[in-house]
Every structure is written in structure tokens, then in C-alpha cells.
Predict the structure.
Amino acid sequence: MVLSRPFVTPGQPIPATPTKVTFMKNWTYRLVMCGALGLLAGGITPRSLHAADEPLEKLVATANSGDPTARATAIQSLGTRGEPAVEPLTKLLSSDSPAVRAAAARALGNIGPAAKPAVNRLIELFSDDDPAVRRQSLGALAAIRPGPKVTVPLFVKLMQDSDPGVRIRVMQVIADAKQAAVPALIEGLKNPAATYWACLILRDIGPDAKDAAPALIEILKDARPEVRREAVLALAAIGAKDAAPQLTALLADENARVAATYALGVLGQVPAEAEKTLRRNAQSSDGMLSTTSLWALARVHPQDIALKKAALTQLVARLQDKDPFVRSAAARALAALPPSPEISGPIFEKALASADEKTAHYMLDALAGLGPVAVPRLIAALKYTSLRGQVAYILGQIGPGAAPATPALAKLVSDPDANVSLEAAYALAKIGPTAKAAVPALIDALGREGDAPRPAITYALGSIGPAAAPAEQALLKNLAGPSESLALMSAWALIKIKGASAKTAAQVLPVLNAGLKSSAAQSRQASAESLGGLGSFASQAVPNLKALLDDANSDVRETARASLAQIEK
């Protein structure tokens, strides 16, 4: 909400900028977005495709040769060979070359849990002189997942690493351990050098860290303002209602009073003496303090309509504050309040009608929290060219309730801005079958060359389902095209549109069977998932799917297993 922000270092102000959650769960989205990213990150290249066909022994020999480029390619390819490659990659961790050590660590991480024999050597590299080696070793250990008994005590010590890249990865991995990490973090709170970082991680873990509440309450006495602030935020995330008296005392602490106000609002526990202070602070000239106080008061008194209306009116006004942090905090506060469309709707409508483009930008996050009732105002916000991508994204997050925006989104799928057209296509996909009016525009955009996001447009057509039947010929044409991702997406869309049948299977099986043997893991996974949608009509693909049960990529293995169950069912 108001104080949500990424990890910061002690002494830094709390940035409060609107965030955009990336939805990467669907393989279709990953397939579109990861193709180009894979190339940039050293993923699928003509050289690596060739290396993928080399015998293991030859790859090992090349990985130990003197040609830096050939070595890098061979090491990368070893990372796709699973358990047989673990021993040679572990030996490369002792190379004199930092680049080789880092590449070998990354490759072991790509192998995943099967690389557990390399854990001890990877741990030794956490003290490597080269920061890239330390980062890759830590990332590999996170991917291998040797278990909290190995990682958590080690990571608590590593929070003091001077390399920010290592420290951030450490915190993320500990937070992933959740409740299992809490005892070690409680110990970390006792170490002055680790206290700040332990608070950050406990906050990230949230309610699962409730056992740390007594220790965090003690930390509220710490002399360092940044530590007190983070302890307050951790208590809020944990839901430590017993901390309300100590948090109330911090309302007099200039360095922690905003955080304490936020925490009391989250906890919904505002003692009588605290409420007087909050009402006074709501009128403060300190924009962040007054904004947070308004939010907290409205949150703990949800039935007080007059208070809520006054708070909403003032918060909307704060969206035009000259301080960008206050504007962003106000937007987050509005989005986090319990929905009251009958109150907030008219306030937003009036504010948006007179808003400049910058103010409108901050209002969008708040509008998203209103759900379908915000759709008319979001459609109106499309008049701002620079906001169209963000508006389309929010409409997609609203989903089927955003169906009235279909005509406006249909116009944007051919927008010259690639990001706008991409977000519009995904928004139509999220709206689903009720976006059938967009089918003609999607078919038209699919036939265009240039920057049109054709895989995303294909995804939208498939998500609309049978109503997108007029797109069949265009999709069949793309099955035979040069783009693997577009061909696989077209096969998936045809199954969604036409349903499982012998005819559909005859059209898409050649593409999907080829996809199962792709060198790209995301393509293998996409093909396996689509075959599951064909059910028993995909029976001829069973041998190829069974081969994927031993795939080096765990996601591919899991998808193949699920699809086989669907086919055999």
C-alpha cells in the first residue's frame, strides 16, 4: 500500500512508485516474452543449437579448451544435459577464469535439484573474489534447493556481503523458505549487522513469521531510525496486533511515525490516544504523514461514511501534490481502501475529468482497485496516448468485467506502439469469450507484418474460443510459417477454437510433435500442454511425450506428465 517498495539500503528514503505486476504464469505469455529475452541473455543461438547436438564428451572437452567463445557455448549446453553433466561442471568451478566459474555455476543452476552433489563447492564460491561468481553461485544454490537446513543459516551470514547483488538474492531465497527460515532470522535480529536485513525478510515472509513478533517489538527500541522503521513494517506484514501499544508510542518518533501510522492501519488496531494523534496528523503539512493518516482512519472505520468520503476526497486531491512520493502514496492509499464504488466512483469521475496527464497516471493504480465499475473511466483515460499501455494492462487485470472496453481495445491491437498493441491483445485475452466483437480487428492485425505482436494476437483469438472461428484460415497459414513460437501458439489457438477432434489433431499434431523436440524448453512445454488439450486425439504423440518425462527441465517434465494423464484419461 502506501509504503510498498522494493528492497532498500539503510538510510534510503522509502520509494513509493506505482508497481506493475507481471503475469508470467501462462506458458503462452512466457513463450511470447521469453523468445527475444532468451537471445539477449545468451539463450538460444545458432551456435548453441549446434552445441546441443554434440556428444557429452565433446562438450566437456570444449568446455576445457582455450577458446573463450567455444567454452561459454559448451558450458551453457552442458546445463541442458542434466545429471551426467554435474561432475564436469563441478570441476569447472575450480577454473582459474572467473568467467568460466560463473558460467559453470549458472549451468548447474539450470540443471536444478539433480545438481545437489555440487552444493558444497558452490558454497565455497560464496567467498570468491569475483562478485559475478558469487551471484551465480548463490543463484545456482537457490535453483538446486538443497533445503533450509543447509541454506538458511548460511544465508543469514551472507546478508552482510558487500555485494548488493548477492545480498538481494540472499534475501529472496530466505524469504522463499518462509516459516522454516524464521528461527534463523530471529537469531539474525540479534546481530546488529544483520538486523536491518532480517527485518526486511521477515516483512516479506509475512504472517508465517508470527513467531518473530516479540523479537521485532524489542527492535523498536533500536537507536537506528531505519531499523525501527523496518521493524514496524515487518510487524504490520506479520499482523502482530499485540504490538499496537508500542506502535502508538512511535507516533511521536519523527523517523518512524509514518510507518507506525501505516502499521496501525494495517492491523486495524488504533487505541483511543492514537486516534487523536492520527486525526491531528491528517491535517499535517507533511504530505506523506497526512496521506497515511487519512488512509489509516478510513481503513479502521469502514462504516463511517462521512469519514470515508472526506478521506477519499482529500486523497484524490493529493494526487496532484507537487511531491511525487505523496502522489504515489495517495494512489496506493486509494487502491488499498475497501471498495466503495458508490462513494469513490463520483469522486474519481470528477477528478479524472479535470486531471492532467501526470495526475491521471497516478490515478490509474487507484482505479484498478475499483474493479468493473472503473471501466468507463479507464476507457476515458485512453485519450492520453502515453497511458494507453498501462490502461490496457489494468483492463486486462479486471478481466471479463472489462468487456465494455472491447471496442476500444480492438482499435489498439494495431497501435504503432508495440507495447500498447501487446497489452491490448493480452487484455482481450483476459476478457475472454465476451471479447468476440474484437475478432475482426484481431484477424486484421494478425495479417500485418512489422511490429504487430502476432503471437499475443493469436493468444487472444484462442482465449476468445469458438467465437473466433473466422480466424481459422489465418491460423492454419501460420502453422507452416517460419516462426516456431507463432506456429505453436496457432496450434494451441486452433484447439481452443475448434475443440478436440480428429480433424483438429490432423492439422496441429505435426507442429506440436516437432515442438516436443525443440531445443527451447518453453517450446517443449508449450507443445506438451497443447497436446493435453487434444485428449485421446493426441495418442500418437504419447511416445514423444513420454520421452519428456526425463527432460532436463522440471517444468517440461511436469507438463508432460499432466498431458499424458489427460490423453490417457
Remarks:
- Residues 1-52 have pLDDT under 50 and may be disordered.
- The CA atoms of residues 52 and 313 lie 61 Å apart.
- Residues 484-498 form the longest helix (15 residues).
